[in-house]
Structures are given as structure tokens and as C-alpha cells.
Write a structure and sequence with these properties.
47% strand, signal, Bacterial Ig-like domain-containing protein, 5 domains
Length: 523
């Protein structure tokens, strides 16, 4: 079985010195009927944390939650305490009650391995311009380390004393991350990282090397400098969060599949809404001077609101209007819609708009991006989820229409690129070194994509370095291979004082590299 959220089922067992790097819970709230036309299909709700080490089992009609033995469970469950240097986990799975079915793609199941609360479960974050405010959710103290604070080249440490306690940090760039652990958890999840969206902090800053024009839902960038490269082409959803899903490059070249070279154009019509606030970062050169800029522009001008939900689910489409008596039937055609790429461990939607075919009167088959999939034409569209496990590379998505009449065999193709997955790395010290005794440390790496639960944890190697306050390196672990996404090592005995520690993950064939910086105090 595969995990719906949590960690991959095959990597979930925790034994001996192996600590499972848990994925963040992606969903909250109550379950709902999944399909208006099928009242027996229900969608489970995700368990929610009610304390740093406790989760509440949802109550959803038509859904039963069971433990590892298949026994029904309800109410509140406590995460077992760490044992032998390993983080405890609670296993839950949602199964359909008699007369019901679970609505979810076949390749995923509703299954969770839940450990101590992660970063974004422990605290809530509010970003106002450059200021990021952290608020503790639970009574136990929470330690937060922020990477990307203004004027700091190392992590900024915060301590939140209890529920409702707050602390504010000023960001210094377009992105930042934070790690959090619960002070009551001695083997806390230092790998428990979460991103922060601080793009508005730098919006409009720098020296621009492009001009933009908007043609409906297409935005074009023309260079006014040399070697112009566009990154982070994204948009604001209605809830204020930033998203890349549904963004499609339609003109221009790329350096690595994610960095576009100007002149370039991106299309946002797959979002199906108007007044989309487009965001981007760019770098350019003027003579021998490197320049950067962060900008925004509005695409798809019109009266409707920007998207309020992440279009990793099927984008909303206008209903197909069937011809009235005496009106010639429209020609059958397929028009590509959706994403043209994703990172490994991330899943996106692709599909085609279908004209000239009534709802339910045809099917579309997708090949070329994972296993063969077939979908029925509904509301003038056929959509498919590209699996998160699709390996990095370049593919061609091929859509073929099947009908009993006109248009049978109509084809449409689109290039699709999969790039290395983004990863985070973190560390947990279960025994702090002293001047006379060595310590013990665990390092873990995890993917960050919305499909991370369905793929194995990253492979590769890590290197750990310890520096004195004056910057002199006092210890290096060497490059050490991860096993199941983790590596455990002894730390050397250290003189009293505060040290800076860096953990560098090399990346691998499926993952980009990542690093973490933290401080340790030896007493």
C-alpha cells in the first residue's frame, strides 16, 4: 500500500536507530461526499494534531479509521515516546464502511504514519511584507530556527514559551525557511522544515532587465539587457499563497527546465480565472554588472476573482454547450490544458479541452507520462494526474480521443518535463557532546513536493561540519551515505562553548541538494 499523507508505507517502520522522516500533513477539515452523482463515494478527513504528540481521529460518515491490526479507532491517539533514539509513530488508515467507497485515484490510499508534530503543525505563520510572525499552537515550548532573516548569514533562533506565544523575524529575501521542534520532545524532529513565502518583501526591488506585455492570459517578457533569465514564474491564489501549478511556458528556451531565457512567454489560461497576479524573479547583465529584479503583472484581465484553491486538483472548466436543433455541430478538437512539467515527488494535472463531444460520449487515453490512463469526457474536459514517482527526464504526453462517431482517434501531444525533486535536510541530536564524552546525532533528508508520500525517501550522502565561534572548522564527518533517507553518527567531544554546525545533503539522481545550519551549545 502507499501512503496518502505521512511517509511512504514501505519506509514507515521505525526500528533500532532509524528515524522516519515524516511528511507534513497536507489536508485538514472534515470529509465530504466525493462525487455529486455517487452518494456512496466519500472522502476521508485527515487526522489533525491537538498537541505536539497527539492527533484527533476524524469522524466522517461512511468512513472507518483502523490501526495496524485493522481494529477501529476513534477519538484522540497519543504518539508513542521516542525509544532507543527512534521517533515513535501512530499508524492510521481510512477504509470505506459497508455500502460506501473511498474517492481517490487508485495509485494512492488513505493511510498515515504520524510522528511528533512537524514544523507547520507546531506553529502558525503570518507574513506581512518582510515581517514573519510565528505563533505557537500548543502549551509546550517550541524552538524555531529561521534561515533567510535580514542581515543574518546563519539561522536565527527563537523560543515560543507556550500556546499563543509569538515572535517576529524580518525576512531578507524572496524565500525563507524555518525548522521547529518541541522542547518537550528530547529527540525532536530538527529535519521538520517548512518554507515561508516572503516574495512580497522584495517585490519591485532591484534593476529590471525586461519589459512585459499581456495578451489575455499570456505574459511575454522581452529583454532590455543581456543574458536575461526568468525564475520563480508563479501566481497568487485568492488566499494569498503563491503557486506554480498550471503555469505553462509557451515561448522561449530554458536552461534547466525551470529557468527560462528571455524573450519568453508563459500562459495562465489553465487556471480558468481572471485577474491573476503573476510574480517572477529575473537576473540579467549590463556590461560586467550582474543585476536582479522581482516583479509582478496582472494576467487574464477580467471581472472574476483569482483562484482560491490550488489547481493540483482538476481545474474548473466551462460546461460544454451542446448545439440546439438546426445548429451545425462543432468540429471535434482536443486542446492541451494543464502543466507542462513538475518536480519529482510533486504531482500535477494535465489534460485536454474537448470540443464537439457531449459529456459522457467519449473517452480520452493518456500515454507517455507513466502508466496508461483513461478518463471520460466531462464538462468538455478530460484530466489526468501525473504520478509523483515519474523519474526526471523529458516526455511526450499523448492524448487520444475515442468516440462512437466523429472525431474518433483525434490526437493531441504536449512535451512534459520532470526535474529533480526539492529536498530538505535536518538533524536531531539525541545526546549532546560534552568536554569528556561524545554525542549522538541523526541526519535525515526528505522530499518537499505534494506527492512526497508516494515516493521513497532521498538517496545520496551528507556531510556534517562543526565550527568554533571564530569560524575555524573543528570537525568534519566526511561524505556519508544515507540509508533509507537517514544517517546516524557520533559527534566528537567538544570544549564548552557555542558552535555552528552545517549539514549538507549532496542530492542524487532524483533530488536536488540541500543544507541546514544550526548552533549547538556544549556545557
Amino acid at each position: 500500500m502507499r501512503a496518502r499523507t505521512g511517509v511512504a508505507a514501505g519506509a514507515a517502520a521505525v526500528t533500532g536507530t532509524v528515524v522516519t522522516v515524516l511528511a507534513a500533513l497536507a489536508l485538514t477539515g472534515g470529509g465530504t461526499p466525493a462525487t455529486a452523482g455517487d452518494p456512496a463515494a466519500v472522502r476521508p478527513a485527515t487526522p489533525t494534531y491537538v498537541a505536539w504528540n497527539a492527533v484527533e481521529v476524524p469522524s466522517v460518515p461512511g468512513v472507518t479509521y483502523v490501526d495496524a491490526n485493522g481494529s477501529p479507532v476513534t477519538g484522540r491517539l497519543t504518539v508513542p515516546a521516542a525509544s532507543g533514539g527512534a521517533t515513535g509513530t501512530v499508524y492510521l488508515k481510512a477504509v470505506a464502511a459497508a455500502g460506501h467507497t473511498l474517492a481517490e485515484p487508485d495509485e494512492l490510499s488513505w493511510e498515515w504514519y504520524l510522528g511528533p508534530a512537524r514544523a507547520d503543525d507546531l506553529v502558525t505563520t503570518t507574513v506581512t511584507g518582510c515581517d514573519v510572525t510565528f505563533t505557537s499552537r500548543f502549551a509546550e515550548p517550541v524552538e524555531v530556527y529561521v534561515d533567510g532573516a535580514a542581515g543574518r548569514d546563519r539561522a536565527t533562533a527563537l523560543t515560543l514559551s507556550g500556546a499563543g506565544a509569538t515572535a517576529t523575524v524580518r525576512a531578507g529575501g524572496a524565500t525563507a525557511t524555518y525548522d521547529a521542534r518541541n522542547g518537550a520532545d528530547p529527540d525532536g524532529a530538527w529535519w521538520s522544515s517548512a518554507p515561508l513565502d516572503t516574495f512580497d518583501c522584495v517585490l519591485g526591488t532591484g534593476t529590471r532587465g525586461t519589459t512585459t506585455t499581456v495578451d489575455g492570459c499570456t505574459v511575454r517578457w522581452a529583454p532590455t539587457a543581456t543574458d536575461v533569465r526568468l525564475t520563480d514564474v508563479s501566481y497568487r491564489r485568492g488566499d494569498g499563497t503563491r503557486s506554480y501549478t498550471g503555469v505553462r511556458q509557451v515561448e522561449g528556451g530554458t536552461v534547466d527546465g525551470w529557468t527560462a531565457t528571455a524573450p519568453a512567454a508563459f500562459d495562465f489560461s489553465a487556471l480558468g480565472v481572471s485577474n491573476v497576479t503573476v510574480l517572477w524573479s529575473e537576473t540579467s547583465r549590463s556590461g560586467s554588472t550582474d543585476r536582479s529584479y522581482h516583479g509582478s503583472v496582472v494576467a487574464c484581465p477580467g471581472p472574476t476573482a483569482p483562484p482560491t484553491t490550488e489547481p493540483t486538483a482538476e481545474p474548473t472548466a466551462e460546461p460544454t454547450v451542446q448545439p440546439t436543433t438546426g445548429t451545425p455541430a462543432p468540429a471535434v478538437a482536443l486542446t492541451f490544458a494543464g502543466s507542462t512539467g513538475q518536480r519529482y515527488a510533486t504531482t500535477t494535472w494535465v489534460g485536454v479541452s474537448v470540443s464537439g463531444v457531449a459529456d459522457g460520449a467519449g473517452t480520452v487515453t493518456l500515454t507517455g507520462v507513466g502508466a496508461r490512463q483513461t478518463a471520460t469526457v466531462t464538462h468538455g474536459r478530460a484530466s489526468f494526474r501525473v504520478p509523483a514517482s515519474l523519474a526526471p527526464g523529458r516526455y511526450t504526453a499523448t492524448f487520444v480521443l475515442a468516440t462512437n462517431g466523429a472525431g474518433n482517434g483525434t490526437r493531441q501531444t504536449s512535451p512534459f518535463a520532470v526535474h529533480k525533486g526539492a529536498a530538505v535536510v535536518g538533524s536531531s541530536i539525541s545526546r549532546m557532546p560534552t568536554p569528556r564524552a561524545t554525542g549522538t546525532m541523526l541526519v535525515g533528508a526528505a522530499f518537499t513536493g505534494n506527492g512526497k508520500a508516494s515516493v521513497p525517501r532521498p538517496a545520496g550522502s551528507v556531510g556534517i561540519r562543526i565550527y568554533r565561534a571564530d569560524g575555524r572548522q573543528v570537525w568534519y564527518s566526511g561524505a556519508r551515505a544515507l540509508t533509507g533517507g537517514t544517517y546516524r553518527t557520533a559527534l566528537p567531544a567538544l570544549a564548552k562553548g557555542t558552535y555552528r554546525m552545517t549539514v549538507a545533503y549532496s542530492g542524487g539522481t532524483l533530488a536536488l541538494g540541500a543544507s541546514q545550519e544550526r548552533s549547538i551549545t556544549v556545557r
